[in-house]
Amino acid sequence: MIARKSKKSATSPATEARAAVEELRALRVRLLDQRDQIASRPVPLALAQAAISDGLARMAEQSLATINLASLCRPADGRSPRLPSLSSDQLLALILASNTGAVADVMKALLAETYGDDPGLDPGERDAELARLDRQILDAEMAEEALVRDCEAAGMAVLRRADASPEATLASDAVLAR
Questions:
Q1: What is the distance between the alpha carbons of residues 95 and 66, in angstroms, rounded to a whole number?
Q2: Which of 161, 177, 165, 175 is nearest to 22 (CA)?
Q3: Over the stretch 98-125, which tens digit does the pLDDT of each residue have?
Q4: Which residues contact 90 (CB under 8 A, 6 or more apart)?
Q5: How many C-beta atoms surround the C-beta of residue 83 within 10 A?
Q6: Quick one: DSSP state of residue 87?
């Protein structure tokens, strides 16, 4: 039993070092999950609804530009004016142009149902939160790299992650010591 205790205490620093690396890697994964949650949050409802109105108005305008009603003004065959043949897209454009507000209201109501109680996230807040999380992720990766180098200096082999940040793995020891 004494021999086993000696062996356990001899491997204890290595086990602790590997556990510390795994803890930093788990922290990084949690931070990446938080980043994904923030990045996938919707924009504020009012912003999305404004985009509906703007998009429908633009679509109606662009679609109407494809319709040539000149034949109603000057018939080419000398007969009375008649409605030119319109494609289904052109008919839809006319319907949309004449009912843009109603179509927008329906779409906005459907969007509001989709949002539910989620107020969305302002783009400026999203950018600030993503930048904060990116800094924390890099800090965790720098700490992980410093610990891996300490383990290597102590003769312990610790494999780096395949997706380790080049900024961390290529950082100087002075930068990692900060």
A1: 14
A2: 161
A3: 999 999 999 999 999 999 999 899 999 9
A4: 63, 66, 67
A5: 8
A6: -
In tens digits, the chain (178 residues) has pLDDT values of 445 454 555 567 888 988 999 999 999 999 999 999 999 999 999 999 999 999 999 988 888 887 777 666 666 666 676 666 778 888 888 888 899 999 999 999 999 999 999 989 999 999 999 999 999 999 999 999 999 999 999 999 889 999 999 999 999 999 988 7
DSSP 71: G
Q: How far is CA 102 from CA 24, 38, 147, in A?
A: 54, 33, 61
Question: Position of tokens 């999950």?
Answer: 33
Using CB atoms within 10 Å of the CB of residue 135, give its burial: 0 to 12 exposed, 13 to 18 middle, 19+ buried: exposed
- Distance, CA of 143 to chain centre: 26
Contact 137, 28 (CB under 8 A): yes
Q: Return the domain boundaries, the chain.
A: 13-41+122-178, 43-120
- Contact between 31 and 133 under an 8 Å Cβ cutoff? The reply is yes
Angle at 59 between CA 56 and CA 60, to 5 degrees: 85
Q: Are 169 and 142 in contact (CB under 8 A)?
A: no
Structure tokens at 95: 């319907």
